[in-house]
Structure formats: structure tokens, C-alpha cells
Amino acid sequence: MRLLVVGGGGREHALCWALRQENPEAQLYCAPGNPGTDEIARNLSIATDDLDRLADAADMHGIDLTIVGPEAPLAQGLADRLRAEGRLVFGPSAAAAQLEASKAFAKEIMVAAGVPTAVGQAFSDLSEALAYVERHREPLVVKASGLAGGKGAVVCPTRAEARNAVRAMLETNQFGPAGRTIVIEAFLEGEEISVLAVTNGRDIELLPVAQDHKRLLEGDGGPNTGGMGAYSPVALATPVLLDRVKREVLHPTLEEMRRQGTPFSGVLYAGLMIDHTGAPWVVEFNCRLGDPEAQVVLPLMSGGLTDTFLNVAQGKAPPSMKANGYSAVTTVLASRGYPDAPEKGATIILPESQPYGVTIYHSGTSRGADGVLRAVGGRVFTATAVATSFTEAQRLSREAAVSVGFEGKIFRRDIGWREAARLGQGNAAATAETVRGKTIVTP
């Protein structure tokens, strides 16, 4: 089998790792890939937005199945292009990818489908947006409608902060084209989980539920990022809750997408807020595997991932999938200055080996002609540990993060602190709270 993974981050390294585990003899390609994928696949030096060259590569290498990792090429129509050329591809059309690429569109779909979500409204006019802020109670959330790398949502405790966020997006173009339209909505309280549904547009199979940590600082303080770590499974996500999510969120959304002529195929990622009553509310939809969620979910699958992707690409129902019963925790290693102005170029020193069950996924690294590995992104690595217990996975992930060396390394030591509290590890939760507002920078 000839497989192509599109993307060059930690999610794509995890995808290549999982596909290689299942298909040791496959011809596996990654475009553009990174130094991590280069060890298990053949990297193709093609940017994810170069649709012509990606399509040519699929033809040249006789690719049987393309798996698109990032959201941007999906929104730009890569899946449409490949399908038009008779290629099997796992990922939604450009029209369906608007569920992530346009928060305004997603809000319209949810309202039409009766999906529980925060009351909100889309704006492109500054004065209208500011007037809306004045009419609504605090706190508010201001979101760039377009793709902003996971950083376009601003939680505003006061109207004054909401006004500043609105002006930053609509007046000073903080997020460029992504912020030309914004969505202002009520703040949802509760605990977030990430539900990833593999679907052909009608039938659904759920991957293990994860919980992402968006905030930069321990104790969930500081600015939003693309994600500082994740763990899976999540005890909060009971079978009863997940049945409700299917009934109230996933199936109605897919039905509305079909009704509007934009059927969705691939991974429908629902970022949910679970309120104090146990009810799910949609915070956002994504049109692909999450990052860093993929790095904890994929290692928990007990095979069958390739067949699942292939079935969905063929329009068939995804086969039943099972997790291996273990726990996984991943810790993001970021560059100093992330997310606003990450430092780049630091030399990286990786340990020669890691304990069993630990994998270091490359997210933002590059190896130059001199052979030196350097940090070139805001998020540099994800250190994933799989173990028989959450506690052990948490410890191993944290220790793996410590073992990687580069100047200005930043990471959180409290990934999974809510789960630790649920399991009665009071010290872990307490530590997370006492260090609120601080970060860890190692020389």
C-alpha cells in the first residue's frame, strides 16, 4: 500500500507513527514532514498549500490513500482536488471544512440543527460589534471567524476587554483575514473535552475522548495557545454522556450538513463544554484530528486505523474501533515567547533512548545541512507516554519533557491535573492551582 500523509507537525508525526505500526511494509510518504517523520516515512518537500504539487505527487507515487492532517489545505480544497483526479482521500471537502474555517458558518449550522451552543452573533462591522458587546452581560468570548492557528478565541471577563478584543481583530487586524469576521458569544462554564468522530457523513465511530490544555501557564492561566498538552481517556466522558453527544451534537450536525448540500466526511472534532448538570455544549468544531489530541488518541488504538481511513475515503461506514485500554498523556515542549513571538533556532539535544511506551513527536524542528537539529516552531515537540494507568503516563510524559534539551524550553508540568483530582491525587491538583500564573523556563 502507498500512503501519503499531508502536514509537517506533531499530529502528522503521530499519524505516520500509527500507520507505520499497522503497515510495516507500506510505502509511506509525508509532505512536507519533519525530522521525526523522516525516520519512518519518506518526506516530500512540498508545502501543505501547494495543491498542484501535492496532486502531482499523489499521481507520481501512485498513492492509494491520502490522509490530510492540517485544516488549511482542507479549507483550500485539497480533498476536492484529489477526489476529482480519482484519488482516495481521508478528509472533508472545502465546503464541509467551513465548519472549522468559518466560525460564523459553524454557528449557523448549529442553530439550524438545534445543537446546544453559546448564544452569539457574527460581525464584520466594528460599530455593530461594539454595540453588541454593550448589550450583553460579562463575560464574553470574542473569536476570529477564520483559521487562526488555535489562537483566535479571546475570553473576556469584562466588556472593556471584549471591546479591546473586537478592536484588535476588526480595526488593527490582529489575525489578518481570519479576523475580518468575528463571532461574539456568551461565555460557557464547565469542563472541556475533545470528541473526535470518524464519519462518512452518516455513520459515526468515536476515537478515545481527550482533554486539551489550551492555556500557556500551569493551572490554566495565561493566553490561549494551539495546545500545551492533552490526555486520554477522560473519566468525565462516560458512555451515557457520549451517547448524548451523538444524539444532540454529532448526528444533528451531520444531518444539517447533508441538508445544506455539504456532506462531511473525515474526522468531525467537537470541542465541548460539559456544564455542571452534565449537559454538552459545543465550543467549536474542527474538521480534522486535533493537535496535540492526535498524539494521545492514536497511540491508544488497537489497530484498524488504516482500514477505517480507507473505508471512509470510499464512502463506507467506519468499522468498529477499539482502544487498547491504556492511558496516554502528552506534554508540549514550546519555545520561549510562544504563542506570540516564539524564539527560533535553538540547538536541540535529544536523549539517546526513552522508557518503554514513551514517544517524542516532532512538531517544530528542522535539521540543517550541518546535521544539527534545531527548534523552528512555537511548539517544538510533544512528549507522549502510554501506560497502564493515568498516573504513570502523566509521570513518564513529564519526565520525557524534562529529558529533552534546548535553550528557552517551556512546558507545563500539570497536564491532566483535573483527572488527577478526580482520581484523588489532591496534591497534583493543588500544585496546579498554587503555580497559577507561572511558567517553566529551563536553560
Summary keywords:
24 strands; 31% helix; Dna Ligase, domain 1; Rossmann fold; disordered C terminus; 443 residues; alpha+beta; D-amino Acid Aminotransferase, Chain A, domain 1; five-stranded parallel beta sheet
Report on the structure:
- The C terminus is likely disordered.
- β1, α1 and β2 form a beta-alpha-beta unit.
- With 443 residues, this protein is α+β, with helices and mostly antiparallel strands.
- The chain is globular, with a radius of gyration of 21 Å.
- Helix content is 31%, strand content 26%.
- The strands form six sheets. Strands 12, 15, 18, 19, 22, 23 and 24 form a seven-stranded antiparallel sheet that branches.
- It has four domains: 90 residues, Rossmann fold, CATH 3.40.50.20; 56 residues, Dna Ligase, domain 1, CATH 3.30.1490.20; 123 residues, ATP-grasp fold, B domain (D-amino Acid Aminotransferase, Chain A, domain 1), CATH 3.30.470.20; 116 residues, Phosphoribosylglycinamide synthetase, C-terminal domain (Glycinamide Ribonucleotide Synthetase, Chain A, domain 4, Alpha-Beta Complex).
- α6 packs across α9 and α7 runs antiparallel to α8.
- It has 14 helices and 24 strands.
